[in-house]
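Entry:
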Amino acid sequence: MKVATIADVARAAGVSIATVSRVLSPGPVPHPVRADTADRVREAARLLNFIPSPLARGLAARRSGLIGLVVPDLADPHYPQIAIGVEDGARRAEMGVLICNTLGELQRLAEYIQLLEARRVDVIVLSGATSLRALELRTLQRCQIPIVLIGRPAIAVPWPHVSVDNVLGARLATRHLLTLGYRRIAHLSAPSTQTTMADRRRGYVVEMDTRLELDIIESNGTPDDGYAQVQARLDITPRPNAIFAATDRLAIAALAVAADRGLHVPAELAIVGFDDIPLAAQLRPTLSSVSQPAYKLGRVAIEIAGRLAAGETVQPSVLEPELIERESTLGPGGRFLI
């Protein structure tokens, strides 16, 4: 069933969107609307079963109609998907989005927070909160604007967050390989200074249990280093016959190593990643990956912002990942090739 929007109500009542907003989400200083017009708007809303979004209600007294989205690296395919989710949620609430790309630099973060305060944005959505450190925390604590985090921070913070259950996702990936019969399973890791990567390592360890030997290939998280580390590991016997990579970018590096060594994937080396970036389905072989709902992370962050603005107490929100099985573990046509 189609969800009615404020534009639908405006068309049904024969008024402007602004008039609908004034009637259904009045601010502290209401704009005058004729009684018969207001009645017509309310009746149209009732017939269409229109429900104003929490963000629209909570930010009825907004100062700018803008949301500030802070991301650490727009070159990472994960963050544009989050940005689209934030933008769609903001558009539904008739708000705009200012995107700030910090490149992981503290100075850029501080400058962008000052910029967003100067623009009097109504809320800041900070993505990449899994790597928050004390210095970033101090910068954010000076900010007078409500903040919503995407990612579970490793340190105590006063703001709500939305995250993905990365431990569960890593367990799903490792369990998938175990179920297929692989036993020499290595984890191509990224720095555990991020809670995301620490949780993915923990999920691998938990699922391997004490029955099987752990094999963790340390990397700095970049594809170049991932490639080098996998090359080095495959020179040591017994070599792994499966790799669970902490990110799809690391998994792609492992696929490149396999191709350069002439190893058949998955018969000689199965590979599964994490994130399910759009490229995963376009690779050859296609890449099995744990899908985290990046778009939904953005949408839920906006919902949390609205609930905060409405005066609600908000608990952390944790979304479930999903394993997407493809050729890098099952082979062409979904056939098991071990």
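The chain has three domains: 6-52, 66-164+294-321, 166-291+323-334.
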